Amino acid sequence: MTDAGGGKEWTGAEEERLPLSALNQYSYCPRRCALIHVEGVFVDNAFTLEGTLLHEQADTAGYETAAGVRVVRALPLFCRRLGLTGKADIVEFRGGIAYPVDYKRGKRKTWANDDVQLCAQAFCLEEMFGKPVAAGAVYHAGSKRRREVKFSDSLRAMTERVITEVRNLISTQEIPPGHMKPQCAGCSLHEICLPELSKSSADQAVANLFRMD
To answer: Backbone phi, then psi, for 81, in 5-degree steps?
Structure first.
């Protein structure tokens, strides 16, 4: 079976739905995603605990209406077409059109993992309410600012690709090799992953010893 965009529609069991957070983890680092969702390993650090506290503030279920905007907090999400499940921190409804807002600790980063997770929320909302979702926002607690995210064709394609790759990762039960990346510095699984010990990282360390700057 295929969806309207020409890709394969998910036909798995209810309990096999992917959590939206797995898409964020994979986009941040496939190895981290595998350690969490294949090996079942997770360790908190100061960054993850701060993020948990931030989400607890946003995840108190309820709704309110102000200036014509209905704000729904902790809205459960699902997408049968792609086999997704999760929860939105906040969804604002203007004229019946959903606008998801995801809360993240810190300032904006250079990678796209938050945008992919937000776009997946849009897929869920589009299926649940039957109306297109053109944009949403990421609220960065570090800067106390919203950053609007347009759900462009390219972002939608990237997100669907990540969904397929995460499903394949979990299905094969393979753990990708570690590689030193900028993300490693703040990763709570750094001491378990030990990317410094990977062959590629070791080769780079040796090469750096003989660099002629």
So the answer is: -60, -40
Element (H, E) at 190: helix 190-193
Select from 53, 162, 145 the least CA-distant residue to 101.
145
Buried b (16+ CB within 10 A) or exposed e, 97-119: ebbbbbbbbeeeeeebbbbbbbb
In the chain, the amino acid numbered 110 is T
Hey, what domains does the chain have and what are their CATH numbers?
14-175 (3.90.320.10)
- What is the pTM assigned to this prediction? 0.79
Q: Which of 108, 95, 40 is nearest to 68 (CA)?
A: 95
Radius of gyration of the chain (CA): 19
Could you read off the pLDDT of 9-33 as tens digits, one per residue?
777 777 689 999 999 999 999 998 9
User: At 88, which helix (H) or strand (E)?
Assistant: strand 84-94
